[in-house]
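Issue 218. Parser rejects a valid record. Input:
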Amino acid sequence: LVFEKESGQPLDQSTATAMPSNKYSAAIMEESNNMTATAAVNGDTPPAEGLSENDSGVELTNENSPLTGAEPPSPFSPKQNGDAASPQDGNQCSGGSRKRSRKKSEEEESTWDSYSEEKASGASQLGLRQRPRPRTIFQAGLTPHTHNKPRRQNRKQENSMLLCVGGPRVVVAVSSEVPEAPRLELMEQDSKDSAQSSSTSSSSETQPEYNDNKGFGIGELVWGKIKGFSWWPGIVVTWRATGKRQASHGMRWLQWFGDGKFSEVSADKLDSITAFPKFFSQASYTKLASYRRAIFQALEMASVRAEKTFPPCESDNPEDQVKPMLDWANGGFLPKGEEGLKPTHNSNPLDHHVFDVSLPEYFPSAKRPRVSLCKNKAAPEESYCREQMVNEVLKNKSCIEDFCLSCGKMRAATFHPLFEGGLCQTCKDVYLEMSYMYDDDGYQSYCTVCCGGREVLLCGNANCCRCFCVDCLDILVNPGASNNARYLDPWRCYMCQPLLQYGVLKRRHDWSLKLQEFFANDNGQEFEKPKIYPAVPAEQRRPIRVLSLFDGIATGYLVLRDLGFKVDQYIASEVCEDSISVGVVRHEGKIQYVHDVRNITRKNIQEWGPFDLVIGGSPCNDLSIVNPARKGLYEGTGRLFFEFYRLLSEAKPKEGEHRPFFWMFENVVAMGVNDKRDISRFLECNPVMIDAIEVSAAHRARYFWGNLPGMNRPLCASGMDKLELQDCLEHGRVAKFGKVRTITTRSNSIKQGKDQHFPVLMNGKEDILWCTELERIFGFPVHYTDVSNMGRGARQKLLGRSWSVPVIRHLFAPLKDYFACE
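Output the parser choked on:
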């Protein structure tokens, strides 16, 4: 409602619309376009309690997000072209959550008229329009919850908040003198929509949206991708639905399924929802409730458009109820296909938005998420289930090996590698992914028992990097065990305490062997055993010919020479100039470098071959789950694995050739289970997990695929291996720790423990590890990387990407039965 200057008489709505030249009317229009509320007005109408001047009665917070802390939210509103909120600003509401409208229903107009008559005298004295009434905004698919703010024990701080941003909570405070306003839907029409038929409408409003010949019109169901987030389902919406400006050329406004937030996304980063098999992530679907919610909402809308009905499911399991929808989507949305999913042409653009649907009592997340500021309370079903398990074991003498220690389910799929008990298939997959994931302080990111946990206790043993969640202590050990542990300084975890039974928690006496067996027997897929070549008689052995892809600092060549092999030819593909410099200088030009692996052709392999050994380890940046912006196996540097597979296939002996041929591929353990199994499917074998902690002074767990003889034999240290940090230090320096955490390319990976101590004492002061000491830890000769005036940081980066020499020696040693040695 608008009052004429100095009169207090209300103007007709059409009159106000038709006066763009009036500076007061224009100011009001600009105010609405910027989605900000009007400042305080009549002195006899006090502002609502708890509201700032610019809040319009709506306060949005992030504390009550429905998304859990371990779940990355849908990719919402990245900062693009200066208007949208960035993912870092997670506590700000999206544009769609603060949308206001000047289009009123008849009932609302009558309410305003009666209210205006009551306040006409005060308004006429001040010449100001009335303060707009607060509106309750409902966001599709979200309902407010109450969360407790979790804590991380022993001063372990969370450095990144990107993974705990959820939907906004809406709190409305209304003055007692303001009449109750009717509730409006989130997708209410913008005021400009009501003025489209007016002759005063701007030209931008009358122009067709998204007229750039790139497709993806309003209402289309799509997959979208923005930087830092995986592909996510959404729907193209009009800019009026977002409460923001029009999209830039070549861009589209998307509303994401799952939380209803908006983002401006390039049309080049969109694909049709019919590409479901290509972009659907089974790993995310298994672990993340937000992703399951998004997929369900997208398929729900697709089924309504395609008029697809599904037969009633007899099972009460929600997973079984959703499975027909997933099968329909993976099968191409038949019978109508893409045509059946398109929006109707005569529909209102503002009608296209995310359905307010949710999964009924959907199955819980595969793990309890780690500590975060938006974490919901642990699911009561899971806690009850584990408490019931404890009761069955302690009182009814049931066998704990039949239960999953992580969630309490019966019929465990496999054994728990560290404690007596089992793991169900879902928790096993989570354990495979998370057990070797470490935070910046060197401690495990998740609980040693369940690979989850809202709040964890860190072991006080300087050489232990394990943590245990409060839930596991209070349920599996005894109620209150976590509170008792808080008062112990230092508190030693159940892997460091004596081998006793604590509640139902008892460490396996052979846990080290069981851990190796757990990773070795991850037979998600069964493959034929690799061909075993008979040993070659000594007089028939010839020098070895090697193709090394992603060679790094020539660790393979160094180990072969240390083992005494005669190397006939060593072809190395490497793009890092510093790495090439190390190989050229240290091995005196005996390595032939061929640069980028992508430029090697079949003809090159035929010219350089035949090869007896093909080795390599593609970059792990886009595979490691430690990287929140990872792109996976099929994007970024993850795709380089397929270059290894391509050249391995070319180098293998052709049919009729009877000669020993061996190969090995290495990568990080902390990768997604699906990526790991895809690699295994291509290489047709399961990996073995080897941790260098057994033969060196540092943790370094890696997967190795290959057909080398005895790859899965126990790792045994030799007399030349330096097993303690003190053995690797220069004279006069004292180690504060027996072992160190995994050393990466990052400088802060040198710091140890929850308090981030430097690992060495010299002259009574803490000090970092010197480059020569890092080289000893990895098993390299002293000053191996000291070439071309490289600084300490550059040398650590080379070492952080390299292999552990004792581990490669362990793997290559059996080849002495096949090739000539000096």
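Fixed in the parser; the record now loads. The radius of gyration is 32 Å.
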